[in-house]
Amino acid sequence: MDIRQETIGSILVRSTNWIGDAVMTTPALRAIRESFPNARVTVLANPLVAPLFTGHGAVDDVIIYDRKGAHAGLRGKMRLARDLRTRRFDLAILLQNAVDAALIAWLARIPRRMGYRTDGRGPLLTHGVAVDGATRLLHHVEYYLAMLARFGVTTGDRHLELATTADEDAAMAELLAGHGIGSRDALLGINPGASYGAAKRWYPERFAAVADELSRRWGARVVVTGGPGEAAIAADIAAAMTTPCVVMAGKTSVRELMALIKRCDFFITNDSGPMHIAAAFGVPLVAVFGSTDHATTSPWSERAVIVRRDTDCAPCLLRECPTDHRCMTAVTTAEVVEAAERLRAGRQALPSQGVS
């Protein structure tokens, strides 16, 4: 079925709810834009994710779905559906898997509703796709593209895409200059957080050791990134380091975080939203993986190396480790430093070192 043969003038895209997942949908957004070049594309996203799509080349408009505020409860959903109905969308593309996304599109009387038949929402979809075992094994970038391809919505360009403005970049440069970091200084980003849960996090003292060593070898300045919930972890890293660093965790908006990561020359990170932002901006990065599945959520970049250890319990996909966190304790600072050196030198990392 090729939906491109139908008259589609206005499209609502329901975004995913996590920053990393949302970044991984950007090739799907490009496929939508290329397949419907004359349609108006609007993204519906929560307040955390919505800033990612400001000024995005594939998006014309962004609507915020505030489930904790204006759109809380059934009454809030009905209010949102009424607002969407006035815009007369021809097609809803549901990249989020929840029944909530399909229910709102149905309540908004959007005549065509496309998405995976997950969460029992199949009857609410007009263009549904079943999820089989092979589909579940796809990398998230391919997962979203595979659903669209069933209806003729494709792209030949599968790279991630984010954008900041010149003003945002200049403002970040000014902010860093206030901390003594000039435009010619090499900048190493350290991202110790992972909002999903502690099971995804490597250890502050090991991040600190890596930052100290790479800063010494490369003559780089160090900035520690993260959200408000990671400020304490960032402070622990700063306290453990022997060289000065700039702690920006909890001090940036999403847009400012994007500009900061874009400015980095290298990034050391857990599996997290900022990891995917770095991949989208082509920043070389080393990612430490433990409890999560590197096959489906690895950084979608040729300038990335994963450091992980095969253990009998990983990937468990749990928020908190119920045992001894062996998937993370097994990853050493020496391995991460070596992976960074090899990537910076343009050499492939060695699988025998536990590096992918």
TrEMBL record:
Pfam families: Glyco_transf_9. Keywords: Glycosyltransferase, Transferase. It catalyses: an L-alpha-D-Hep-(1->5)-[alpha-Kdo-(2->4)]-alpha-Kdo-(2->6)-lipid A + ADP-L-glycero-beta-D-manno-heptose = an L-alpha-D-Hep-(1->3)-L-alpha-D-Hep-(1->5)-[alpha-Kdo-(2->4)]-alpha-Kdo-(2->6)-lipid A + ADP + H(+). This is lipopolysaccharide heptosyltransferase II. The keyword Aminoacyl-tRNA synthetase does not apply. Gene3D superfamilies: Glycogen Phosphorylase B. CDD domains: GT9_LPS_heptosyltransferase (cd03789).
